[in-house]
Amino acid sequence: MDQHLAEHVQRQQEWSRSNAPRAAKSRRRSRFFHREVDQLVASQVVPNSSVLDLGCADGSTLRACKAAPGWGIDLDADAIAQAREASPDLHFMSTPIEELAELPAPAPDYIVMSMLLDEVYDVQHVVRQVRRWSVPDTRVVIVTYSRLWRPFIRLAELLRIKARSAGENYVPWDEIENMIALEGFEVTKRLDGLLMPMRIPLISSFVNRWIAPLPIIRAFCLIRVTVARQVMRAGESVNSVSVVVAARNESGNIRELIMRTPMMAPEQELIFVEGNSTDDTWEVIQAAVAEMQHSTPMTLIAMQQTGKGKGDAVRAGFDRATGEVLMILDADLSVPPEELPQFVRALEEDRCEFANGSRLVYPMDDKAMRFLNLLGNKFFGYLFSYLLSQSVRDTLCGTKVLRKQDYERIIANRDFFGDFDPFGDFDLLFGASRLNLKIRDLPVHYKERTYGETNISRFSHGWLLLRMSNVAAARLKFVG
């Protein structure tokens, strides 16, 4: 260990030993603050996941996250003793983070560093260790203070409301993001919270939950939660793709769609899911699959949904799919199938984990999207970008792509939101956000429909979108 780093660790240990009673008393006084922070962290963690908390103190964050299994590491031996007593089902060890050679937790789902990076001597060193301990599915959750609050934090320390440890540095969160980027991480989500760190009955909790996350106001919050993922140096090749097409009253597009869909992997299947058509779409699908199978390297599959709506059709198609990458393509050909390979490349090169098509970048055909629909799409794009804490310009574009293993994780956590989405787009977007998957927009061209009429109702479906926005707000944004 570097001499200066060793000296810093020794000072921290000496301070911890000599100030243990004071630190414990400070934690008790500020338990409202810590509970609010724990709730913010827990909102980013799926219950019953494996969680490693670096700088765990008394283990309250692990308990809030409902970690199973959970590991906590802290150099404060007294705090670790309290943690073991309060949570005998969790695992704790007292040691400096910097001295850890190997983790007691193999490949954790989450690594939490709550206000830890403000106390370490070399942030880069710790982040480098975390990178070594994480796997592609690991999510790193970092909690930092806002520099705007530094004078108030110093005042709280002078008044002994907050305990101050040796060598605190208050690294600003933009610098934290720069440091983690240098070690191969990228941010998947940012969550600001906590306007009132002191408890005022009925007021503080209300303000922290419902007021603090609002636009503009959130810039003044005390705490930022940053979620990051490891970016793979070399992407994984995609060997199989399943393209799911929900087809209702689209008989005039079926054959052309088969001819124009390019091969994107050595193994590829094109799955038509028909339901509740009033024209001959089902008969055309069956005939096209039988007649064209010999002329395409893709496997063509025809099936009918048992329920109603595009969302039900997408879920039925995904359940049938065998590809390692799952893709939705609208049957109206408004998004050219020839543009699909870029979505597979984005996953192969690990540019994202959820690729979302955006029709609002390139100029679109004159009659491709009605004016009110365009306004609605832009409005909901801004709204959902705010709610999901990731940029999503075009929520209703039918082209969405993700790996099957991530879709299966979304299914496993679907009860978190409930069965609310008749479109299928938001079930996936909300689920991806809940899992902190990296969502990235990919621009596509939007062409005028050449057969049939749109199945979108501007007003009734717009009302449904507002209701779904309410679900996202309650579950993803206003979480205190």
Could you give a short description of this structure?
This protein has 480 residues and is of the alpha/beta class. Helix content is 39%, strand content 17%. It folds into two domains: 3-230, Rossmann fold (3-Layer(aba) Sandwich); 240-466, Spore Coat Polysaccharide Biosynthesis Protein SpsA, Chain A, CATH 3.90.550.10.
CATH architectural group of the largest domain = 3-Layer(aba) Sandwich
Shape annotation: elongated
What is the CATH first-level class name of the largest domain? Alpha Beta
Strand order within the widest sheet?
A: 3-2-1-4-5-7-6
In terms of DSSP E residues, the strand content is 15-25%
Total DSSP E strands: 14
Report the structural category: alpha/beta
Report on the biggest sheet: 7 strands, mixed
Distance between the termini: 40 Å
Mean pLDDT: 87
Summarize the helices and strands and which ones pair or pack.
Elements: H1 3-18, H2 20-29, H3 31-42, E1 51-54, H4 60-65, E2 70-74, H5 77-86, E3 91-94, E4 110-114, H6 123-133, E5 139-145, H7 150-158, H8 173-182, E6 185-193, H9 204-211, E7 223-230, E8 240-247, H10 254-260, E9 267-274, H11 281-292, E10 299-304, H12 310-320, E11 325-328, H13 341-348, E12 354-358, H14 371-388, E13 400-403, H15 404-412, H16 425-434, E14 439-443, H17 458-477
Parallel strand pairs: 1-2, 1-4, 2-3, 4-5, 8-9, 8-11, 9-10, 12-14
Antiparallel strand pairs: 5-7, 6-7, 11-13, 12-13
Helix pairs in contact: 6-8, 14-17, 15-16
Describe what you observe in this structure.
The structure is a single chain. With 480 residues, the protein is of the alpha/beta class. It folds into two domains: 3-230, Rossmann fold; 240-466, Spore Coat Polysaccharide Biosynthesis Protein SpsA, Chain A (Alpha-Beta Complex). 39% of the residues lie in helices and 17% in strands. The protein is built from 17 helices and 14 strands. The chain has helices at 3-18, 20-29, 31-42, 60-65, 77-86, 123-133, 150-158, 173-182, 204-211, 254-260, 281-292, 310-320, 341-348, 371-388, 404-412, 425-434, 458-477; strands at residues 51-54, 70-74, 91-94, 110-114, 139-145, 185-193, 223-230, 240-247, 267-274, 299-304, 325-328, 354-358, 400-403, 439-443. The strands form two sheets. Strands 3-2-1-4-5-7-6 form a seven-stranded mixed sheet, with helices on both faces. Helix 6 packs across helix 8 (173-182) and helix 15 crosses helix 16 (425-434). The longest helix is centred in the C-terminal third of the chain and has 20 residues, at 458-477.
